[in-house]
């Protein structure tokens, strides 16, 4: 059932990419393109004529695939013809118009006539291609409407209820005729076998049976164990081994039954033991074997009842053991449904017999669904007391899903009892197909996430090679793995959603997905710019190449060229920063140009954003311009010791938005560049790198100043950090209140190291002054107290001092 519905989608895929690929070849001439357009129009006419008669679902799928492929070809041809039309218009523009009163040269006139004739032909072909695309879209919509109508008609058909006598009376009335048809089916088949055998030993059939048995059992088991051993020895990481093992089990478990059934049926055909009327049933048996093998392998790969360490799903052992039989029951039910449907078609069963078989299929589906619901309900009840907070939330979602399935099962039961047997069967098949699709989606999403996040990680061999070869940071590799996993999982969800209705005729299904993918691959027009996956990929590749070139240039600039110049560290940083931003801007412009977005469009966009920048981004723009001024004028350089307000520290980094200053407590002060341009900033190292030590003190007026000066100079000389040039100096600053004020200076290599030497000099001076008996201090202060009464009366009594 699944493979028969998927066949039109595969046909659409092959037609689309084989025919369209040939039609879109860049080297084709206009005549060849018009010829291919004529073929596409003929294909559409054939599809239109085929729709004049009633067609079944498979024929509708094939016709839809042909219409979609023809539509893509016609659209692509029209686009390529437009390019040739533009080239012809350019040539006509180059020739120019004939000046009045002059006679054009014969060769120019002939060339003009030829170009105008080609232009008329290509313009007509472009219009035909557009019209063909519209007609194809109308045919596709007509087929989709017809499929929906047939689907609605089938599931809404009502017969007598199985609980009424009329239902069984119709079956009993048609029973003799159905019996004769079945007997004729088998008797004709046995007669063809006897006539085709002719007494020769059927070694082909026996060989086919032996090979089928070997493929189904020994070879399948060997391949499963071989793949597991190979993964243990060669696959990196436990998660990758676990996911690859699950995927390998599904591949082997699907192909082995499919090949075994195919070999068995083919052996019977080669031996002449396959009657012609039995071929359709045999083909259905082959398809059902592949699907049932896939269902069983899927359940085994997810649950892994006997090997819990390889289990993909986070399930306990008892849960996996109880759920494993459900995959076998679902596979057996699917096999029964497919074979019964094929048998009824081959025999030509009557409508009552077909309805009875559908009712039996619906009952089996309902029994399977109810059994699964009871098993899941018991598992939830057994773990209700030991659930954690996270498992409670997950259990709530499972309860809602189980309630929804119970409601659908009840609706299916009521529809079956009321006589809507096709609708009841559809609900059962839809639930089973959703379970298979959901399990497949869960496994594939786990595989994609395990592989993407294990291969693209900083610790993997590929991640190490990318980090060393391309200079990428480990976090960038990890982020790429996560983004790749998310993108692939979204694609899987989209494909699963498209497949959800495919087996039962609901909507366009998988072939609709291919047609939409093909239309999207041609690109969509946004503002005169064609956006398509190919263009986006091309732009991304160009951007990566441009950024790689910028990185290589920056490595050469910073490591080779700038060290050879006379620029200091700050100057090199300024040049490097400006070069980096210019290179990134050029790489972005190059990537946009690869998307056919010219510089004039970028300028238009920037002009449109200028209003928003002027009102909403004033501060950012101001800081950006201030950063450029700092980099150009360099009033502050990296390594300068500056003071901003009350904070003092070393300039660590200057960017186009802010400047980083490392303070004395090793914290970092981030100052917007506009603060450094518009406000007062003290730069202690702008004029030179030297630092100055200043010491101020006073001595008594009776103290010898020459001795004091000698002691201070000796203290300066004893400190190794004090420079000889400029030489230390000692000055008498003032004589105040019987005190001599000294102001002393010395220089060190940097203001950053001035604090320690100053402390050492002060300690040395205190020790020397104490030894020589020199009293140092500050100017004594006097406090005068004036009585309030005298002050108010204006008295002139001398105040008392202290």
Automatic annotation (TrEMBL):
Entry's Gene Ontology cellular component terms: plasma membrane
* Pfam families, per the entry: DUF3772, MS_channel_2nd
Signal peptide from the UniProt entry: 1-25
Q: Which GO terms describe its molecular function?
A: mechanosensitive monoatomic ion channel activity
Q: Which family does it belong to?
A: Belongs to the MscS (TC 1.A.23) family.
The alphabetical list of record keywords is: Cell membrane, Membrane, Signal, Transmembrane, Transmembrane helix
Q: What PANTHER family does this protein's entry cite?
A: MINICONDUCTANCE MECHANOSENSITIVE CHANNEL MSCM, POTASSIUM CHANNEL RELATED
InterPro entries reported in the protein's UniProt record: DUF3772 (IPR022249), LSM_dom_sf (IPR010920), MscS-like_channel (IPR052702), MscS_beta-dom_sf (IPR023408), MscS_channel_2nd (IPR006685), MscS_channel_C_sf (IPR011066), MscS_channel_TM-2 (IPR011014)
Coiled-coil-forming residues are none
Q: Which domain of life is it from?
A: Bacteria
Q: Domain named Mechanosensitive ion channel MscS: which ranges? A: 620-683
Q: Which organism is it from?
A: Tianweitania populi
Task: Tell me the compartments it is located in.
Answer: Cell membrane
**Topology class, membrane:** Multi-pass membrane protein
| Residues of the DUF3772 domain | 126-188
Q: Where are the transmembrane segments?
A: 200-219, 246-265, 285-304, 325-347, 359-379, 400-421, 427-448, 480-501, 539-557, 577-595
Keyword Transmembrane helix attached: yes
> What protein name applies here?
Mechanosensitive ion channel family protein
